[in-house]
Design brief:
The complex is a heterodimer of chains A (266) and B (317). With 266 residues, chain A is an alpha/beta fold. Helices cover 30% and strands 30% of the residues of chain A. Chain B has 9 helices and 15 strands. The chains are: A alpha/beta (266), B alpha/beta (317). The structure holds flavin-adenine dinucleotide.
Chain lengths: 266, 317
């Protein structure tokens, strides 16, 4: 079984973000592996580790796939230190400013070429927050879509997957035969911290960096020129007016009630 | 006149609050055509619930395969409606399902996609609030039919007296869109309280509740609020995940947001900082939530909330 995990390098979710010319200023903040992708990596590891137990060379592998600038190898390295086997990075100056459509196109090309059975993803990236890439991958690959999984059961022998999809619409049990795109929610597991051994091993694991030409995608299909939508203008939200802060000295609740009534909020 | 299609969100028997809102947005650019994807025999009852909205026409697709096979089947059905109607744009309410349908449909009909818009104008451009509400962006699709998801409660739904015309439309779902089988589905456990994303008032509890949401809920019921929670509270199992507000939970933008025992971490703020008025109750005067609060009480939520409740009751009586 070959599992691909789509990962993204994002600005640290703890950092305040800035925009320059309608795009996120990625230079001004620390870049990290998207927190939500760690859950996908952890889940895939929990699936393959028992199956590979005691085997000389692992029969079931995990490959991390990403698209982004050169330094994305740092985020991939983090995933490798958790235990994934290798990585593929598509990096090309022409990719700057790519929209979701272009991202799905590039990632699915790499997935197609790699002969994978399953793709795992986090539900969204903490920067763009569109939450559409897993579904769009399923669409462009023509694979079964099993997304927003709160639990995943992979039947390696029967080549099928069952998940519990957990969203605001409730819980749905759904299943499909390989190949599938699975996205996992952050309640599914507690991602491991890379061990020292894992970090050392990751240094020797392969990361295959490819340009657009290597995967047969033309530069006109991606980046700002290939985008199907465009930002017309971007503005920082005006700061909120300074509010009132009072110490509760026995009448905080009453004062709160007065405020709510006076402002006609309740 | 331009046709703007939109997907009517429902749970099988009850339509959501969003179709009226989407119709009002659609009217800005043309006629508002709602699409109902329903099980066989369920369409009329759903359509009937939409009277009084600004919908001009309703297209009712009844096919049991849609609810059985998930997102791909819904996309297949919608793509067939789009092929027939050739709309100028397609609107969907933002939700996990809505956004996934939009993303796939955009690829299928070769149109650009914009998610989580809070405004939609007659020139088909949108406004979004990005990076946790710290930026406002105007955007536009430039290739193909725009597929746009719109956050619930972004607009007050308009009312109209003329009833929408209703027509049935047959679709057939191809095998490639039936690879997923849904064997069981359980609706969300709903109390009597309003939905988080639809509520005018949201009151949330965090780690400061120490697992006791009774005071938060009692206040919610008094003022007709929805109940939210921080990730600390949902991770601890004190409140269901579906009530989480923030980066990996719901984004809410109510008239009034009351944060109780919540520190105001950046990931929590990402889900609530566009709220009109923010009230915070926190023991720690240094808690970052106070930077956002229009009105903050430094105190114990277990003292402040019951007192506020009594005061509200007394003043109302
Ligand atoms: C990728 C990622 C995504 C995340 N997504 C989310 C998200 O969607 N939503 C979210 O909320 N968080 C999210 N977080 C977590 C976030 O970073 C914080 O850990 C979380 O919001 C803290 O919750 P809290 O404010 O309830 O708890 P704490 O930060 O522990 O704050 C508790 C507060 O309660 C106060 N308090 C204690 N007792 C009382 C009392 N009796 N009365 C009044 N005040 C009291 C304390 O002074 C303190 O300020 C995410 C984190 C990451 C890394």
């Amino acid at each position: 079984m070959k599992i691909a995990i789509c990962v993204k390098q994002v600005p640290d979710s703890w950092a305040e973000k800035k925009m320059v010319n309608g795009r996120l200023d990625r230079e001004s903040v620390d870049a990290v592996l998207n927190d939500l992708d760690e859950y996908a990596i952890e889940e895939a590891l929990r699936i393959v580790e028992p199956l590979n137990e005691g085997k000389e060379s692992p029969e079931h592998t995990i490959t991390l796939i990403s698209m982004g600038p050169e330094r994305t190898t740092e985020a991939i390295r983090k995933g490798l230190s958790m235990g994934a086997d290798g990585g593929v990075l598509v990096s090309d100056p022409a990719l700057a400013g790519s929209d979701a459509v272009a991202t799905a196109k590039v990632l699915s090309k790499v997935i197609q070429d790699g002969g994978f059975d399953l793709v795992f993803c986090g539900t969204e990236s903490t920067d763009a927050r569109m939450s559409v890439i897993p579904a769009m991958l399923a669409e462009s690959l023509g694979w079964a879509q099993l997304t927003f999984a709160g639990s995943v059961k992979v039947h390696a022998g029967a080549k099928s997957v069952e998940i519990a999809r957990m969203t605001e619409s409730g819980v749905e049990t759904m299943s499909a035969a390989f190949p599938c795109v699975v996205s996992v929610i952050e309640k599914i597991n507690e991602p491991r911290y890379p061990s020292f051994k894992g970090i050392m091993a990751a240094k020797k694991k392969p990361i295959d960096t490819k340009a657009l030409a290597d995967i047969g995608v033309s530069s006109g299909e991606v980046g700002t020129t290939g985008a199907w939508s465009e930002v017309l203008e971007a503005q920082p939200r005006p700061p909120r007016d300074k509010g009132v802060k009072l110490e509760d000295s026995g009448d905080g609740g009453t004062k709160l009630a007065d405020y709510l009534l006076e402002k006609r909020l309740v | 006149m331009a046709n703007i299609l939109f997907l009517v969100d429902h749970d099988g028997s009850k339509v959501a609050k969003t179709p009226g809102e989407l119709a009002t947005f659609a009217k800005r650019a043309g006629s508002a055509i709602g699409v109902i994807l329903a099980n066989n025999g369920a369409g009329d009852a759903l359509a009937a619930q939409l009277s009084g909205t600004e919908i001009d026409r309703l297209i009712v697709v009844e096919n049991d395969e849609i609810s059985k096979h998930g997102i791909a089947a819904a996309v297949s059905a919608l793509a067939q409606v789009v092929a027939k109607e050739k709309p100028e744009a397609l609107l969907v309410a933002s939700s996990a399902r809505g956004k996934e349908i939009a993303g796939r449909l955009a690829l299928r009909i070769a149109g650009g996609v914009i998610t989580d818009a809070t405004d939609f104008r007659s020139d088909l451009s949108t406004t979004q609030s990005v990076f946790g509400g710290s930026f406002t962006v105007n955007a536009k699709v430039k290739v193909g039919t725009p597929v746009i998801t719109i956050r619930p409660s972004s607009i007050e739904a308009g009312v109209a007296s003329a009833a929408a015309s209703i027509e049935k439309f047959e679709v057939s779902i191809e095998a490639k869109d039936k690879t997923v089988t849904i064997s069981n589905s359980q609706p969300p456990v709903k109390g009597g309280r309003p939905d988080l994303t639809e509520a005018k008032i949201v009151i949330s509890g965090g780690r400061g509740t120490n697992g006791n949401f009774a005071e938060v809920e009692a206040m919610a019921d008094l003022i007709g609020a929805a109940v939210g929670a921080s990730r600390a509270a949902t991770d601890a199992g004190w409140y269901p995940h579906t009530h989480q507000v923030g980066q990996t939970g719901k984004t809410v933008s109510p008239q009034l947001y009351i944060a109780c025992g919540i520190s105001g971490a950046i990931q929590h703020r990402a889900g609530m900082q566009t709220s009109k008025t923010i009230v915070a109750i926190n023991k720690d005067p240094e808690a970052p939530i106070f930077d956002l609060a229009d009105f903050g009480v430094v105190g114990d939520l277990f003292a402040v909330l019951p007192q506020a409740r009594e005061a509200l009751k007394a003043k109302r009586a």
